[in-house]
Amino acid sequence: MSRLYIMRHGEAAPGRPDSERSLTEHGEQEARAMAAWLSDMLPGDVRTTLRIVASPYRRAQQTAQWMATPLERPVETLPIITPDDPLEPLLDWLQQEVAHTPCLLVSHMPLVGALVGRLVEGDVRASQPMPTATVAALEADVWAAGCATLRQWQSPCELLG
Q: Are 93 and 103 a contacting pair, CB within 8 Å?
């Protein structure tokens, strides 16, 4: 059984181009709160092997870096997880790269909502709403449509009060 943590980036400021938008102060607070939560809840074996993979967009990279710091893990960039990328290349990547290594994937809506929906429900029309900095923790033997189980759902608003 492998683990995948799917995270939407923290709150970002408006701006153009979209790829250069930065986290707001609130977005940084969300990311710090989620980093502390994830660091506390991860089992030791997962913590030491976790891959952190982020979209190349600035706000996702910033969020991933906040997540990586307490875990003392590097951040990898995956160009196929920007907001409007199709899911099929990502599903292929998950089957190859996440079969034996736990992974935190930091990306954007609508991609993260569609990915959780597809992996858990199996329907191409399924999508989960994911507020900023929310993490969906999934487990699966195979990363394919309808094969994952949602184990936990954590939003920073529950941590920040």
A: no
The token pair that represents 43 in the structure block: 């089992």
129: nearest Cα among 110, 147, 151: 110
Structure tokens at 143: 């990363």
pLDDT tens column, 12-32: 999 999 999 999 999 999 999
What are 59's two structure tokens? 């706000």
Q: Are 159 and 37 in contact (CB under 8 A)?
A: yes
Q: Render pLDDT for 141-156 as a digit per residue (tens, 0 to 9).
A: 999 999 999 999 999 9
- Domain interval for residue 11: 2-160
Domain count for the chain: 1
The reported pTM is 0.96
Q: H-helix or E-strand containing 6?
A: strand 2-8
Q: Determine the angle formed by the axes of helices 25-41 and 58-71, rounding to 10 degrees.
A: 40
Report the CATH number at residue 136.
Answer: 3.40.50.1240
**The pLDDT of residue 123 is above 90:** no
